[in-house]
Amino acid sequence: MLKAVIFDDAPPIVIKGLQEMIDWSKYNIIIVGSATDGNTAMKVVNDLQPDIILTDIRKPGLDGLQLIEFVVDIFPEITCVVFSGFKEYDYVKKALKLGVVDYLEKPITIEKIEELIPQILAKIEEQKQYNSLKSQSKLSYKEQLERAAMELLFKGYNAEQKWKNIIDQLSEFEVQSVTVLTSSERLNWKEGTPSTYSVIELHLEDQFIYVFYKFSVITSYDRILEDDVDSLEAIVGVGTTMEKKEGTLKSYNDSLKALRYGQYVAEPGFHSYDELKRSYIFQKIM
After folding, report:
1. How crowded is residue 153: how many other Cβ atoms within 10 Å of its Cβ?
2. Three-class DSSP category at 267
3. Which positions carry 4-aspartylphosphate (predicted)?
């Protein structure tokens, strides 16, 4: 069921009436909490993370607008409705700009709320469909990115522009750099956030290739590895970090050289091309 909360400084009997005199269950809604001041309301939102908020626009402590700003920023999927008194139109305009579904003019009646509920449910359904389409779109881009990366490895520099274009479409943040790692075994990575990094995995014969497109600096791959570093048996070649997306193929080729060195010396762990290229042994092997 959808979780709803009511925030209003009206007498408790009024809030109780709204909770009990409306058959919320027939709308697949359950009232899970209430508050009479803004600070308590914020705690309720944090603790319960409801689907629907019905809130007075003016109340003690944190007012309704400040609460809505907080909700829109932290929990944008929550649907909000505001109660307003006479001559509070400036507040209502600001609330509507923030994205509330609608407003109800006081005094609040059961009839007014029941008339508004279908609109609330329609908004929630619309948001669900949008999120679903957004998820499918991202998945599609992810698949395109994997195919483009594979083409890059087989077709070389001729496929780099396509690779660059797809990264630009996929990324919410500007890609700062790209690094390719090639491993002798499959690795598990912690999931990055949209502002840190994203990684795609490619499997090519006996190699597991990991392409990191980064939105901030990664100082150590050990820290973002889900596997236990101390018991790591894989040999991993770390390619040169390229500031331009067009350098992905070079990073991959460098990672192969670092991998071959690690296999030659039979040492599990990470082997960085940038650190190895100054080594006499590495130069001799390569």
Report:
1. 19
2. coil
3. 56
How many folded domains does the chain comprise? 2
More confident residue, 212 or 285: 212
End of a domain among 57, 79, 108? Answer: 108
Other C-beta atoms closer than 10 Å to the C-beta of 77 total 12
Rg, Å, the chain Cα set: 27
CATH, residue 28: 3.40.50.2300
Of 108, 128, 150, which one is at a domain's C-terminal end?
108
| Helices of type H across the chain | 12-20, 38-48, 64-74, 89-98, 110-155, 160-170, 248-265, 273-276, 280-285
Q: Which of the pair, 112 or 160, is modelled with greater confidence?
A: 112
Residue 116 lies in a domain: no
Three-state secondary-structure class, residue 271: strand
Look up the domain containing 52 and give its range: 2-108
User: What is the torsion angle, in degrees rounded to the nearest 10, for the CA atoms of residue 175, residue 177, residue 180 and residue 186?
Assistant: -50
